[in-house]
Design brief:
This protein is α/β, with parallel strands linked by helices. The protein contains 9 helices and 9 strands. It folds into 2 domains: about 40 residues, no CATH class; about 210 residues, Rossmann fold (3-Layer(aba) Sandwich). The strands form 3 sheets. The protein has a 5-stranded parallel beta sheet with strand order 4-5-6-3-9, with helices on both faces. A two-stranded antiparallel sheet has the order 1-2. The structure holds adenosine-5'-diphosphate (ADP), magnesium ion (MG) and zinc ion. The site of zinc ion (ZN) has 7 residues, from loops.
């Protein structure tokens, strides 16, 4: 993965360095840059999140948001020694969960780790089509990728109709990763009762007087997956800062 035109190594990816009178081969910087780029391509971060990083994340005047950003930067510094190994970002739509999760993934990739972005809904669709011989997707490819990725970013966990199959599939992926201590970075906007999430929400002022009962994480992914998830992930509750897209339009 070295640069063909590199003057330091002549495109071999290795350069000879002299140290205390001895010469030895050392990996050339150009191969790191190329590896970084290859890792980033393989992470398949969707283009609408492609530019999301820590530098362009605003704390919006919220100390809580600032503290979360600091915690995530430290998580990246400690990685892979962080304990628990994973992260679960919980919060309402538009509060910046995916932005932060992508910022973490990018930073880990910059540090040389391999990671992959997967949208939960899309992952389940891919796994299901893998069972269909006409789909062209090789059987179990998506499933294995989700299991084996060094770092998995699973975005919008629970955003899918619940069936026994969905529950079994997500449970087996999360359980496997948990047993192997493979880091999972997940985001969800589903409330979790034990984490103090509100399950009943009043609609905005002026809307017809009714209450919306939200589904919970347990309902959408099942008890077992939820409990493994909480075991392997540091839970990060996003503050109620509102939808950034709405706020930035004002
Ligand atoms: N604090 C923030 N600073 C800068 N951009 C933000 C911030 N929060 C959200 N955004 C942007 O707003 C959009 C929605 O954020 P996103 O991370 O997708 O929200 P969520 O995943 O919580 O629904 C994205 O384009 C994201 O980059
Ligand atoms: Mg999101
Ligand atoms: Zn080189």
């Amino acid at each position: 993965m070295a640069e063909q035109s590199c003057e330091r190594c002549g495109g071999t990816g290795w350069k000879i360095v002299e140290k205390e009178g001895l010469s030895g081969a050392q990996r050339c910087e150009c191969s790191y840059a190329a590896r970084g780029e290859a890792l980033l391509n393989r992470a398949r971060i969707p283009s609408n999140y492609g530019g999301d990083n820590f530098d362009n994340f605003s704390n919006r005047g919220s100390n809580e948001l600032k503290a979360i950003q600091g915690l995530l930067v430290r998580y990246c510094q400690d990685f892979p020694a962080a304990d628990p190994p994973g992260l679960l970002l919980i919060g309402e739509p538009g509060c910046g969960k995916t932005h932060l999760a992508v910022a973490v993934l990018r930073r880990l990739i910059e540090h040389g780790f391999e990671g992959v972005f997967m949208d939960y809904q899309n992952l389940l669709d891919r796994i299901r089509s893998g069972y269909d011989p006409l789909s062209g997707e090789s059987p179990r490819a998506a499933y294995e990728e989700a299991m084996e990725a060094e770092v998995l970013l699973l975005d919008d966990l629970g955003a899918h109709r619940v069936t026994d199959w969905v529950e079994d599939t997500v449970t087996s992926i999360i359980t496997y990763r948990c047993n192997e201590r493979k880091p999972l970075i997940a985001t969800t906007n589903l409330p979790d009762a034990e984490m103090g999430g509100t399950l009943i929400e009043r609609l905005p002022e002026g809307a017809p007087a009714r209450y919306d009962i939200k589904s919970t994480l347990i309902e959408k992914i099942g008890m077992r997956a939820r409990s493994r998830l909480f075991e392997m992930c540091r839970i990060v509750r996003m503050p109620k800062v509102g939808d950034y897209r709405v706020a930035s339009r004002k």
